[in-house]
Design goal:
This protein has 281 residues and is of the alpha+beta class.
């Protein structure tokens, strides 16, 4: 009997379509679960493995936890998704493992946020602990600008959005490195460079991507970061500063179409082969 692999998603992006195609090529029986239209229960049909590919971090973590309660292997597991999806949890895990990252301060209200700006010295980067694609991430050049940002964030109901992760601005902050890790293998790396009128390097915001050679130090820190987070398919974002690599963020449900275009690595094929290797054991 063929192994049954489930793909859990909410929006079928190009990545999910390519993963489906490669899984079918390997002869794996496939179950597609769109959680926008299909409820999950703790009594669902058992599968051998669930690939968690929702855009929403909460949906991803909840879906993984429900499947894990049934004894199902998940990629990634819910703990890894939660840690990667919250920047404060990520930095705490990195700190415990001795992995360097930009100098950072957490502030839970406006008064603490202003003190954090003074503590680090300007310019700083202010961001909420959750979110992707550079949303609500702001380069702050002085205390007056920070107060304005704080006032706007205070209008949100969510305590998560009112929480400030304030980091010392890295001089190379308009460009960063993205490394894709699968299991114990680094699939490759790209440098993301911000668009002309933006300082954020996110490709989703118009940044461009360039191929890089992954040296031994970059490979080592990326694999260690993935191990610390606990995920098997992870994207690691890093800065280069004074000859040192600093981990900035981690993505537990990585997009990879831009990565594939630059590196030529067939990521969905690699992922499908990795999945088949697990379910055939």
């Amino acid at each position: 009997m063929a192994a049954l692999v489930e793909l859990i998603f909410d929006v079928p992006r190009l990545e999910e379509k390519l993963i489906i195609e490669e899984l079918k090529k390997l002869g794996l029986e496939l179950k597609l679960t769109n959680v926008k239209y299909n409820p999950l229960t703790w009594n669902d049909q058992a599968v051998d493995l669930s690939l968690i590919r929702t855009i929403s971090m909460q949906r991803a973590a909840y879906s993984a936890s429900i499947r894990e309660a049934l004894g199902v292997k998940t990629i990634n597991n819910y703990k890894a998704i939660l840690i990667a999806g919250d920047k404060i949890f990520t930095l705490s895990a990195l700190k415990k493992a001795g992995i360097p990252f930009p100098e950072s301060v957490v502030a839970f209200n406006s008064e603490a946020a202003e003190k954090a700006g003074e503590l680090l010295g300007y310019p700083v980067v202010d961001k909420p602990p959750i979110g992707s694609w550079g949303r609500l991430v702001t380069l702050v050049k002085d205390s007056q600008s920070l107060r304005s940002i704080i006032e706007h964030r205070e209008l949100y109901q969510s305590q998560l959005i009112k929480t400030h992760l304030i980091q010392k601005y890295i001089s190379s902050g308009s460009r960063d490195l993205r490394i894709l890790v699968l299991g114990e293998e680094v699939l490759g790396g790209i440098r993301r460079v911000a668009a002309e009128k933006d300082w954020r390097s996110n490709v989703a915001r118009g940044g461009r991507a360039e191929l890089i050679k992954v040296d031994k130090d970059l490979e080592t820190i990326s694999l260690k970061a993935a191990e610390v987070i606990g995920g098997e398919f992870i994207a690691i974002d890093l800065f280069e500063e004074d000859g040192q690599y600093l981990v900035n963020e981690v993505n537990g449900v990585p997009e990879f179409k831009g990565f594939m275009k630059v590196t030529g690595v067939n990521v969905p094929k690699k992922l499908a082969e990795y999945v088949k290797g697990i379910v055939k054991k």
